[in-house]
């Protein structure tokens, strides 16, 4: 990525999203909220509200920059590599699928590696606790500003495939840009750290859901005992009469 591309991408695009978002939310209930919460609130389960695009694009770009480092690329190690090999067969198959996903995103958008800890938050379904089948890595693509946060996934890696991300360096050769990103820029250290945090957060959330479920069950049992005691009391009063 050339200095010209970086300065243009960050200075003209990323910065504009941030400035426009600040103007949109100033004095509203969104002002002061964490950016991730603004994204979820304004995505509004697909019925997108005005601030969403700027909020999501501001977050997406920050995440994109942090996905890279000078002299990056190569191959990950540790738990990340183990999970990639488990979920995609090999690192080479993963890289091929990621490149293909990014190359085939029609128009503007993003390609992502994400940790899928639960099922989608669907209005007409009760979502069960995450199963072992859910706790895995997935590759997804998203149009425009959409990102995996709105699907309740944990993003680990992204590549920006909006044309402004690569046109100055590669013109219309998107696949060449994607290969350069994967082979020379990806920071696998950053991705590994994100995976570690994602698994810890998912485990905390699952424990909290289990705790709430246990409390609800105990509350129902307690209510049942109170009803039984009330009925017994009525019966004793009748016998006394």
From TrEMBL:
Alphabetical GO biological process terms: response to light stimulus
Entry keyword set: Chloroplast, Iron, Metal-binding, Oxidoreductase, Plastid
GO molecular-function term, one example from the UniProt record: metal ion binding
Catalytically driven reaction(s): 2 superoxide + 2 H(+) = H2O2 + O2
Subcellular location: Plastid, Chloroplast
Role played: Destroys radicals which are normally produced within the cells and which are toxic to biological systems.
Family statement: Belongs to the iron/manganese superoxide dismutase family.
Name this polypeptide is given: Superoxide dismutase
High-level lineage: Eukaryota, Viridiplantae, Streptophyta, Embryophyta, Tracheophyta
């Amino acid at each position: 990525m050339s200095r010209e591309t970086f300065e243009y991408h960050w200075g003209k695009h990323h910065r504009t999203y941030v400035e426009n978002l600040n103007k949109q939310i100033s004095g509203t209930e969104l002002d002061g909220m964490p950016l991730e919460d603004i994204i979820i609130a304004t995505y509004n389960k697909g019925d997108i509200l005005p601030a969403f695009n700027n909020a999501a694009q501001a977050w997406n770009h920050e995440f994109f920059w942090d996905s890279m480092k000078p002299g990056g690329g190569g191959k990950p190690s540790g738990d990340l590599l183990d999970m990639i090999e488990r979920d995609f067969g090999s690192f080479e198959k993963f890289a091929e699928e990621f490149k293909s996903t990014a190359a085939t995103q029609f128009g503007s958008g993003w390609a992502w590696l994400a940790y899928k800890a639960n099922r989608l938050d669907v209005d007409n379904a009760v979502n069960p606790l995450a199963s072992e089948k859910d706790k895995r890595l997935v590759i997804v693509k998203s149009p425009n500003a959409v990102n995996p946060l709105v699907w309740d996934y944990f993003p680990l890696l992204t590549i920006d495939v909006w044309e402004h991300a690569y046109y100055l360096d590669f013109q219309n050769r998107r696949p060449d840009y994607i290969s350069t990103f994967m082979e020379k820029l990806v920071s696998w250290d950053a991705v590994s750290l994100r995976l570690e945090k994602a698994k810890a957060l998912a485990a905390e959330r699952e424990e909290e859901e289990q705790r709430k479920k246990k409390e609800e069950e105990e509350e129902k049992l307690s209510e049942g005992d109170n009803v039984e005691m009330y009925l017994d009391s009525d019966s004793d009063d009748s016998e006394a009469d």
